[in-house]
Design brief:
By secondary structure, this protein is mainly beta. It folds into three domains: 126 residues, Sandwich (Immunoglobulin-like); 186 residues, Immunoglobulin-like, CATH 2.60.40.420; 192 residues, Cupredoxins -  blue copper proteins (Immunoglobulin-like, Sandwich), CATH 2.60.40. Helix content is 6%, strand content 40%. The chain has a six-stranded mixed β-sheet, with no helix packed on it. Strands 11, 13, 16, 18, 19 and 20 form a six-stranded mixed β-sheet that branches. A six-stranded mixed β-sheet has the order 22-21-26-31-28-29. The longest helix has 11 residues. It is globular, with a radius of gyration of 22 Å. The mean pLDDT is 94. The site of CU-O-CU linkage has 11 residues, from strand 5 and strand 32.
Amino acid sequence: CIVRHYKFNVVLKNATRLCSSKPIVTVNGRFPGPTIYAREDDTVLVKVVNHVKYNVSIHWHGIRQLRTGWADGPAYITQCPIQPGQQYMYNFTITGQRGTLWWHAHILWLRVTVHGALVILPKRGVPYPFPTPDKEEVVVLGEWWKSDVEAVINEALKSGLAPNVSDAHTINGYPGPVSTCSSEGGYTLAVNPGKTYLLRIINAALNEELFFKIAGHQFTVVEVDAVYTKPLKTNTILIAPGQTTNVLVTTGRGSGKYMVVASPFMDAPLLVDNVTATATLHYAGTFRKAPTILTSTPPKNATSLATNYVKSLRSLNSNTYPAKVPLKIDHSLFFTVGLGTNPCATCVNGTRVVADINNVTFVMPKVSLLQAHFFNISGVFTDDFPANPLIPYNYTGTQPTNFRTRRGTKLYRLAYNSTVQVVLQDTGMIAAENHPLHLHGFNFFEVGRGLGNFNPKKDPKNFNLIDPVERNTAGVPSGGWTAIRFRADNPGVWFMHCHLEVHTTWGLKMAFVVDNGKGPNESILPPPSDLPKC
Ligand code: C2O
């Protein structure tokens, strides 16, 4: 294994989309940002230099960060942000992971344009557990906003109302070739006939789960969130913000141009975004002006398509890549996830929309939680996060009229190496919605999923404890629940939050503190000397 060096200059760059230009925050002037390549067991060093007026931090989404929480990146959780003019060297080793992950800014809403792929190849000489592709491509799905995104969310926080949605989705940075501004191309995936391509698909969008498909071509899903799956054939994949999916695509014998689409999935009534991004799969030798073979997009409320796809995913669970599902559970947690309100005298309706887990709206601290934990700084957080809702109610039925949440910086303490089950129950507070929940520092197994209220007597009988899909971000279905299991084998402070940016901002987040009982200094490495100060 080797050490890979990268330099990320966070800089403004002018970009033109949807017929207008604006400066965007980028890494090295690129949108999407540069791809990091490494192999399993390599050490990655990324020097991030902040040249913009915002505070910055970068998260390596899905990297386990075993004992190196200082490199995880979420601002005020594992580090203070990198201030304008400052720099920080992220230093982590990729232990026992290979596949597609990604990196993104983890402060404000900067990740809208500050993100890129993180491709981890298997160790040298170790093949993929599927036919070797002829070529690999990174496909990053995202959003484009005509307005200044930070201004949009600040305005929403002031008014207490929901922010706007993006103006377009993007595929590798472009909404699509069908644009009135002729100078703006869309992304083109150039292919040869009779070949197999590995597409490494990443959903970097702020607030939308997306369907993704290619006219006339079938996918074989072979990996999600950098964990191999049993091969799954499908025409359409569903991918939530935070998730990654590797698919094989085999091209046909002929030629032609085929439409590639990313379109939103949302069965929640509040959301109105409906904009499809397109790209082109272009066979070698096809005229540039040839007509594109089109495909329909799934309706945005195609719930059964979404559900069937997610239910069909299985981890590979081979001898080489076993699924080590915890069977005995030490911590059994039940978390409601949803929306609520808080009083707000200056807001438009006298209240503001907030979000919560177990009725706690998470308040960001002023110094990082990991520092507070490591250096025993009191008064930053409490470790009394509730293991269950304080007052149970009919989560998906008639809602209590008082949507008010409690506020606090509460963590849940896990014993090192203990096993954890979390049932994540969506609520209908204000409105039922999908919540892609992301856990830092761990992969988890998604052992069960269902609609309505979780039934603790019946539902566990149907859990898949053999080959459930293993991932770092799982969609809690709107008006339903998801059960996850993991082993707390990584000491530190680990954030868990909805990967819909608006929900994170509203407080749908919490953190676990994992301690080996011998004191924090014996469990995580000391902080690097250049760790940013608050
Ligand atoms: Cu991809 Cu906490 O984030």
